[in-house]
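Long-time lurker, first post. I've been practising inverse folding by hand and with some scripts of my own, and I keep getting stuck on stretches where the structure tokens seem ambiguous. Below is the full token string for one chain I'm working on. Before anyone asks, I'm not after the true native sequence, just a reasonable design that respects the backbone. If someone could post their per-position residues I'd love to compare against what I wrote down in my notebook.
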């Protein structure tokens, strides 16, 4: 089965699932595939926003429903959860809107928000807006990366070139995450 066949069969669903499970790399790769004409960019953005928002809503609901459960209590003891809760208490609206952009807090944040007093409707609306913004930014990054790569090495139609582009994109995303993580750690050490 060729890459084009896989994308034609599972393309936007794969972006939806990737955004729900993994996040940035799958969505940026979707933007890259949109640049190559294998997926519609608007579809990539919509699938990414829906996958991300759905996962966050699920974790929020689990945090809300099981806030006193021993498993949630174990999650509450983790340092990332404590950081998420501290930020949430200081800036609830900003935190709900921005947590998906904060490295290391994406998974535990919706659970933390679910255990808080934030109304569900407020979370759903802010989370939907943030998911749309995130999906547009990350998929646009992949699209623009593909455009620059195409200009550098020509039209990416072969599997090897596309695989190279995805690997380069993943390396750049990992480098950005590493830089952001260092900055977050440095800020958390400040008095």
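-- Answer (accepted) --
I ran through it position by position. Result:
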């Amino acid at each position: 089965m060729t890459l084009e066949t896989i994308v034609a069969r599972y393309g936007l669903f794969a972006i939806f699932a990737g955004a729900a499970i993994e996040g940035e790399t799958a969505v940026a790769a979707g933007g890259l595939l949109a640049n190559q004409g294998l997926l519609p960019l608007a579809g990539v953005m919509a699938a990414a926003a829906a996958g991300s928002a759905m996962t966050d809503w699920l974790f929020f609901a689990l945090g809300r429903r099981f806030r006193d459960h021993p498993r949630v209590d174990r999650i509450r003891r983790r340092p990332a959860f404590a950081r998420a809760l501290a930020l949430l208490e200081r800036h609830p609206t900003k935190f709900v809107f921005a947590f998906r952009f904060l490295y290391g807090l994406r998974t535990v944040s919706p659970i933390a928000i679910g255990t808080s007093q934030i109304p569900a409707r407020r979370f759903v609306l802010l989370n939907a807006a943030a998911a749309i913004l995130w999906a547009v930014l990350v998929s646009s990054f992949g699209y623009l990366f593909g455009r620059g790569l195409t200009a550098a090495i020509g039209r990416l139609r072969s599997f090897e070139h596309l695989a190279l582009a995805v690997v380069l994109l993943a390396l750049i995303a990992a480098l950005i995450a590493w830089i952001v993580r260092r900055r977050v750690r440095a800020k958390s050490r400040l008095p």
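A couple of notes from the structure itself: The first helix runs from residue 3 to 21. The CA atoms of residues 19 and 186 lie 28 Å apart. Happy to go over any region you disagree with.
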